[in-house]
């Protein structure tokens, strides 16, 4: 075996990586790359459409190379160079590529039989991020290419994702693209050779046709009449690799003009491009990705093709829909093995089909039971993937009125069974023994009311006031009375609530009948048996559903891992936000307290005991008990923050006002809420499994084979 390495001085040294095995015949066809040989990776998804050229630093220079590259120093092999063709100074969108391979643009064919020395061993891998180092040859363009891939997207922090250069790259049209291939070039598989040809067809804006394709060979020709462009590849022995054995160039036909829909821009080709983008930015929509592909390559992608390609790309990244249900047991063990307090519960029907799956992340459970006010908001959202289903969500609220996701569940349908399963899991797996009281805010659905009464009997259930108001307007067609409904629901005293309700009766008697038919204890704060703690709606969960919206169409394991990734990022961001904030109250409630302090100056205070005071102004009088943290206006006890009357009593005694605020509004508690984050998860290949695991089948209620909705 000849194993050589060429240095810059042309000396020979043993090369442990790039080796070419020589057989007794010495012919080129008998030479095959040995495992561990260097292969140059061509990066094709750059936004400026850089044309990538390959050459190996570990192969022997051929006689043909020496004859065609007389100016190159002896001993140098063909290298990888990158021609930067996105020169912003060029005014024309259609320009020719620089001839990055030194020598002539000879259009004659080069066959294997012409060479007795081994040619470059390389591979085309459109999904790789590595590149060989730039050449030191002074005769080649100085293209210092970084091994780190540059994203085509800008960070999603305000403004557009793309720059003008990303959205308006030049479109190549020159026949110098023929130099992308050369005789002797090796591809790891036939599929990678086909993908390389697809790229060249789209980039050169020419239709190519398959002239021959079988297990042993592949031949493509130009589809234009009279053009002699042709390329042929043959299988190397028993290996899956293909070597180019014939290459006729250049094209003699003219490229396509304007936007076009080439056959080579197939669903698989578009899916490969979308997959690379989704790896970097998984939250991109189909419309955003397709727009970028159309702009970069100057092609037209139909809506149906883009949908099929997106489904294929996501399946490639997140697994098959059927197989994902079978991975649930391994995912369940992977979650619990991390030791961070994450809990799960998987339910399978008697026939082996999936029924329900519940999961809650340990750091969020701990934060809810220790740091957050005792309020849980429950909501649901429909899954948009291949199988129908519903995602149930339970969230808490931090000291800045920000959402804290606590628990999730995938159920077949949003009915009594689904909500009962979720409520039971929350009671048994999430709520700690210190949670002696709990307020739950939900929709007005009957299935939710029944489930909470059955499995969370000690919780105080309240309807979302915003949803109640919307239903009132929808049923009674009285938008002018909408504000009165809100005032009734947020009034702290029953006297104030009844006052606004009487005004509602005078405005529309029938509308008031509809509102009074709903149990007041479920929507009116003054009649509510628990405490809302300044929370009246479930709109915070709407913002979180928008955050996880791009994972709702994934297979179930991809969905679950997607929520984990979103929650981990969310926790980390909040952790960084609060790291350098001084102690005191959170910003939201510090501003509220400051406003109340200014208003309290107009009140008079009379002390009756060490903790009891009478606060009055004109004909209004309020009783404040600082030890019990109550006020006759009921705002203090229902919010946990001192009302204006309590603040007047506190300031009159010269007490520290922060000592009379609930602890969950403090910066210290807010910092503790996000003190822990989630650990990383292994690939599904490494998930623990057991031999006695029974298979889990997809639910029968979902329609298989049809993507119900794709986010665009």
Automatic annotation (TrEMBL):
Pfam families: DBD_Tnp_Mut, MULE, SWIM. Residues 1-10, 21-30, 55-64, 134-146 have a biased composition (Polar residues). InterPro entries: MULE_transposase_dom, Transposase_MuDR, Znf_PMZ, Znf_SWIM. Residues 622-654 form the SWIM-type domain. Residues 82-91 have a biased composition (Low complexity). One of its GO terms (molecular function) is zinc ion binding. Signal peptide: none annotated. It comes from the Eukaryota. Residues 1-39, 55-170 are annotated as: Disordered. Keywords: Metal-binding, Zinc, Zinc-finger. PANTHER family: MUDR FAMILY TRANSPOSASE, POLYPROTEIN, PUTATIVE-RELATED. This is SWIM-type domain-containing protein. It comes from Papaver somniferum.
């Amino acid at each position: 075996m000849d194993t050589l390495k060429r240095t810059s001085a042309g000396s020979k040294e043993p090369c442990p990586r790039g080796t070419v095995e020589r057989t007794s015949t010495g012919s080129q066809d008998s030479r095959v790359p040995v495992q561990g040989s260097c292969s140059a990776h061509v990066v094709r998804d750059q936004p400026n459409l850089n044309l990538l050229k390959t050459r190996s630093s570990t192969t022997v220079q051929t006689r043909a190379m020496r004859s065609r590259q007389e100016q190159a120093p002896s001993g140098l092999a063909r290298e990888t160079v990158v021609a930067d063709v996105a020169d912003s100074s060029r005014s024309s969108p259609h320009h020719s590529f620089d001839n990055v391979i030194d020598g002539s643009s000879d259009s004659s064919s080069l066959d294997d039989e012409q060479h007795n020395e081994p040619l470059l061993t390389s591979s085309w891998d459109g999904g790789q991020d590595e590149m060989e180092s730039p050449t030191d040859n002074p005769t080649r363009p100085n293209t210092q290419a970084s091994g780190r891939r540059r994203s085509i997207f800008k960070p999603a922090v305000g403004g557009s994702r793309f720059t003008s250069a990303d959205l308006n790259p030049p479109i190549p049209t020159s026949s110098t693209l023929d130099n992308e291939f050369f005789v002797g070039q090796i591809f790891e598989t036939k599929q990678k050779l086909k993908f390389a040809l697809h790229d060249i067809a789209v980039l050169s804006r020419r239709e190519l046709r398959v002239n021959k394709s079988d297990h042993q060979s592949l031949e493509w020709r130009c589809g234009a009449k009279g053009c002699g462009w042709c390329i042929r590849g043959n299988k190397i022995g028993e290996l899956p690799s293909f070597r180019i054995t014939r290459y006729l160039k250049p094209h003699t036909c003219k490229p396509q003009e304007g936007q076009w829909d080439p056959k080579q821009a197939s669903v698989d080709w578009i899916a490969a491009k979308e997959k690379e983008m989704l790896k970097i930015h998984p939250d991109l929509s189909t419309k955003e990705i397709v727009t970028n592909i159309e702009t970069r390559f100057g092609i037209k992608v139909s809506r149906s093709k883009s949908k099929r390609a997106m489904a294929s790309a996501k399946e490639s990244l997140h697994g098959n829909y059927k197989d994902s249900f079978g991975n649930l047991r391994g995912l369940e063990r992977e979650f619990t093995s991390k030791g961070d307090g994450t809990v799960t519960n998987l339910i399978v029907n008697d026939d082996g089909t999936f029924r329900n799956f519940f999961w809650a992340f340990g750091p969020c459970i701990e934060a809810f039971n220790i740091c957050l006010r005792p309020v849980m908001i429950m909501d649901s959202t429909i899954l948009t993937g291949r199988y129908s289903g519903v995602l149930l969500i339970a969230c808490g609220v931090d000291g800045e009125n920000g959402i804290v996701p606590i628990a999730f569940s995938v159920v077949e349908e949003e009915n009594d069974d689904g909500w009962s399963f979720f409520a039971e899991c929350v009671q048994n797996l999430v709520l700690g023994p210190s949670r002696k009281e709990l307020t739950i805010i939900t929709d007005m659905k009957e299935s939710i009311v029944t489930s909470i009464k059955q499995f969370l009997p000690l919780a105080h259930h309240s309807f979302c006031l915003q949803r109640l108001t919307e239903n009132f307007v929808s049923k009674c067609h009285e938008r002018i009375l909408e504000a009165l409904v809100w005032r009734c629901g947020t009034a702290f005293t029953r006297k104030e609530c009844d006052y606004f309700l009487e005004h509602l009766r005078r405005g529309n008697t029938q509308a008031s009948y509809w509102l009074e038919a709903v149990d007041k204890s479920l929507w009116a704060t003054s009649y509510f048996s628990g405490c809302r703690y300044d929370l009246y709606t479930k709109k915070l969960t709407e913002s979180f559903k928008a955050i996880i919206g791009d994972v709702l169409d994934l297979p179930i394991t991809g969905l679950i891992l997607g929520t984990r990734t979103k929650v981990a990022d969310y926790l980390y961001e909040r952790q960084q936000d609060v790291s350098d904030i001084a102690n005191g109250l959170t910003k939201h409630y510090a501003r509220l307290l400051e406003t109340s302090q200014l208003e309290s100056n107009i009140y008079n205070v009379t002390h009756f005991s060490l903790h009891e005071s009478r606060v009055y102004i004109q004909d209004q009088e309020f009783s404040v008990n600082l030890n019990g943290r109550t006020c006759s206006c009921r705002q203090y006890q229902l919010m946990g923050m001192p009302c204006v009357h309590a603040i007047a009593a506190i300031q009159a005694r010269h007490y520290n006002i922060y000592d009379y605020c609930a602890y969950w509004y403090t910066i210290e508690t807010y910092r503790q809420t996000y003190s822990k984050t989630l650990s990383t998860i292994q690939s599904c290949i490494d998930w623990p499994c057991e031999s006695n695991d029974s298979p889990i089948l997809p639910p029968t209620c979902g329609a298989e084979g049809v993507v119900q909705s794709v986010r665009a």
